[in-house]
Amino acid sequence: MSLRSTLAHSFKESFAKKIALMSSVLFFTLLSSLNASAKGDLTKQAPIEVKVVLGDKNNAMMFSPSTIEFETGKLYKLVLENQGPVKHYFSSDGLSQSVLTRKVQVNDASDTPIAEIKGTIREIEVYPGFQAQWWFVPVKAGTFHDLRCSIKGHTEMGMKGTIIIK
Ligand SMILES: [Cu+2]
Fold first, then answer.
1. pLDDT by residue (tens digit) across 17-71?
2. Residues, CB within 5 angstroms of ligand 1 (ion)
3. Which residue range is the domain that position 50 belongs to?
4. CA–CA dist 122, 27 (Å, integer)
5. How far is the CA of 94 from the centre of ligand 1 (A)?
6. Predicted model pTM
7. What torsion, rounded to 10 degrees, do the Cα atoms 131, 136, 141, 144 define?
8. What's the total number of domains in the chain?
9. Same domain (yes/no): 64, 103
C-alpha cells in the first residue's frame, strides 16, 4: 500500500468510526427523549384504585367513605359503585375543576369495557347495582365540601361528603 492509499484508508476508517459514534449518540439521545416523554405523561401511570359506595341495600342516603382524599400528580381510578335500590349521582364541582380526566369507563357484567367517555366530567350518575370508573389526575389542591348526590332530596337526607386534594 502506498502512503497515499494508507492515508486515504485510515481517513475512511476514522470517518466511518465517527459516523458510527454519531449515530449511536443520536440513537441514545432519541431513546432517552422517548423515555422522558413516557415518564412525563402523568396519565400513563399505574392507577391507584379508590372505591366509593353510593347508597346501600337499605336505601341509606350516603357515600361511603364520605371523605375522600387524593394527591396531585397521581393517576386515580375512582370506582363508584351503587349498592342501593335507586340511582345516585356523584357530583362535586370542586373535584371536577381540580382534575384532568383521562376517561370514564363503564364495564359490562363480565367486567369487559363497553364504553370510555373522555373530556371534562362534572358528575356521574350510577344505576342501582352498577359501577362506573372515573380515571383522573388531580392537578390542583383544595378541600371541597360540595360532594353530593343531586337527585331531589338525597343531599338533604345525608348524601354528601368532602373531597380533599393534597
Ligand atoms: Cu342519591
1. 665 555 555 555 444 555 555 678 999 999 999 999 999 999 999 999 999 999 9
2. 88, 149, 151, 154, 159
3. 45-165
4. 44
5. 18
6. 0.77
7. -30
8. 2
9. yes
